[in-house]
Design brief:
Elements: E1 13-14, E2 18-20, E3 26-28, E4 36-37, E5 48-51, E6 54-57, E7 65-70, E8 84-89, H1 103-106, H2 120-129, E9 134-137, H3 146-158, E10 162-167, H4 173-180, E11 185-189, H5 195-202, H6 206-219, E12 223-230, H7 238-252, E13 258-262, H8 277-289, E14 295-298, H9 303-306, E15 308-309, E16 316-321, E17 324-328, E18 357-359, H10 361-371
Parallel strand pairs: 8-9, 9-10, 10-11, 11-12, 12-13, 13-14
Antiparallel strand pairs: 1-6, 2-3, 3-4, 5-6, 7-8, 7-18, 15-16, 16-17
Helix pairs in contact: 2-3, 2-10, 7-8
């Protein structure tokens, strides 16, 4: 924990998930870390701290960057395929993953990495003017800036723009209900399937993530997909993948898409090799053997593992090469055999393709002027 050091009071926003303790400290109850802070201190996430004996969010309305991406990059393969999503995040994180591949954002302690303010109204207007089907809270976990994300979601829904949370799922029960009531789709990062891995490598716990997954799938209408980054020698054993995918089948059902993605050396795990493509193929076979219908490989060139196949007749339903759709064999969301593909699909796929289009503050102003 560190000094709150607020330089921009306009980015401070009140929160409600906290309580005062008898010893004078204030405990944040947003996530399972339960950070206990004194006046002026920040929690582990670095963006929530104590000001005037209350927990405040210190990054409201500020972002580490905006980019228009293909929705498949989140990754979401069953949520309006081929469409564009406006992606953004803030700074900080409530985990401490040694392999973080967005560490320059999620581990940032420098406020100059945050661009000029972007109000929820502005973000929704930009998403609308650029033809984005959805807005994604990503790069760092939106759980820690949930008040900002919720307000963005409310504005986006006025334009029928969907909202996507890319999250590790480390959130407590009450804030979980509030946050996800404003979210249309989520990709939950199931980082491994042992408490030891979560504790030693991620600085978190497994059970809250499992609770989040069960809540989302069984108690909400949020469309859910799961991602697991397979790290050689750490979470890629047959036994762990077998146990994980059996749990998914038994607790979430066979239709939850599961993405196995390849690790590359980064942050504090530079001594670990890249994930071999064969590892992803092996994981996919184990998951499908355990009854999962939609298992994907990512961060490698594997058109078969990236495509969607009908579990009823074996027909190719959506062909993908990286983030480009090359085949579309759905009619009203159904295979020719009549099988209805789980997810959200329009009559035709989007045409955004594999492009990535970063938006600078200057471009933001240009788009806003065009919109207005």
């Amino acid at each position: 924990m560190g000094d709150i050091g607020i330089n921009n009071l306009s980015s401070v926003y009140p929160t409600k998930y906290w309580r005062k303790l008898p010893d004078g400290r204030v405990e944040c109850t947003l996530c399972p870390r339960f950070c206990r802070m004194r006046e002026g201190q920040r929690g582990m996430c670095f963006v929530r701290g104590v000001l005037d004996e209350k927990v405040v969010l210190t990054t409201y309305g500020r972002s580490s960057g905006f980019c228009i991406d293909p929705i498949e990059k989140k990754p979401l393969n069953h949520f309006y395929p081929g469409t564009a999503v406006l992606s953004f995040g803030t700074a900080g994180c409530n985990l401490a993953c040694r392999f973080c591949q967005n560490w320059d954002i999620s581990k940032s302690r420098e406020w100059d990495k945050l661009q000029e303010e972007a109000s929820p109204e502005l973000i929704a207007q930009i998403a609308h003017s650029t033809g984005c089907r959805s807005v994604a809270f990503t790069y760092n976990d939106p759980v820690i800036f949930m008040e900002y994300a919720i307000d963005v979601a409310k504005e986006c829904h006025k334009f029928n723009i969907k909202t996507v949370a890319v999250t590790a799922g480390e959130i407590n029960e009450e804030p979980r209900k509030e946050f996800f009531s404003h979210i249309d789709a989520a990709n939950v990062d199931l980082k491994g399937f042992t408490e030891r891995f979560y504790r030693k490598v991620c600085g978190g716990h497994l059970q809250p993530v499992l609770d989040t997954l069960k809540y989302l799938v069984n108690e909400t209408d949020v469309w859910v997909e799961i991602t697991t980054l397979l790290i050689p020698g750490h979470n890629d054993s047959d036994d762990e993948i077998d146990a994980m995918t059996k749990w998914i089948y038994e607790n979430l059902g066979p239709d939850i898409p599961h993405h196995f993605t390849a690790f590359h050396p980064d942050y504090k795990m530079l001594d670990v090799p890249h994930t071999p493509p064969e590892t992803l193929t092996r994981a996919r076979k184990i998951a499908m053997k355990n009854g999962l219908h939609f298992v994907y490989t990512g961060n490698v060139h594997d058109p078969r593992g990236g495509s969607t196949w009908c579990p009823n007749c074996g027909e190719l339903l959506i062909g993908r090469d990286w983030y480009t759709i090359f085949a579309w064999n759905l009619k009203n969301g159904r295979c020719k055999c009549g099988y209805k593909l789980p997810g959200h699909f329009e009559k035709n796929p989007g045409s955004w393709g594999a492009r990535r289009a970063p938006l600078s503050p200057k471009m933001f102003k240009k788009h806003l002027k065009t919109f207005l």
